Amino acid sequence: MSDHDWQKDDRRANSPEPWHLKKEVNVSLIVGLLLQAAAALWWAAGIDGRILALEKSDVEQEASLKESASASRIVADRLTRIETLLETLVKQRERN
């Protein structure tokens, strides 16, 4: 073996095994996971607030739609009466 090959072998002997996992958990990992969980809860609470606001808006819009439908029926009834009266007036005018 050459000197270069010996140096490679020495480095391998002094370095840790590849893909070796330690059974330790860093405090930074625990803090990071707790912060991520807190952020997820905060986000979920915000979404819940938005959903409640949309549901309230939906109820208000449905009430407004019912009022509009009622007003439309009233206008349609009045228009029918006007058409009936107009036809009556046209017939009377044709007789004269």
Describe the structure in brief.
The chain is mainly α and 96 residues long. It is built from two helices and no strands.
Topology summary:
Layout: H1 3-14, H2 27-95
Describe this structure in words.
The chain has 96 residues and is an all-alpha fold. It has one domain (25-95). The protein has 2 helices and no strands. The protein is rod-shaped. The mean pLDDT is 86.
Structural descriptors:
0% strand, 84% helix, 2 helices, 96 residues, mainly alpha, single chain
Average pLDDT number? 86
Report the order of strands and helices. HH
* Poorly predicted tracts of residues: none
| Major sheet attributes | none
The value of Rg in angstroms is: 41 Å
Structural class: mainly alpha
The end-to-end distance, rounded to whole angstroms, is: 130 Å
* Share of helical residues: over 70%
Amount of beta strand = under 5%
Describe the global form. rod-shaped
Query: Given the structure, what is the number of helices?
Result: 2
Total count of strands: 0
Question: Could you say how many structural domains there are in total?
Answer: 1
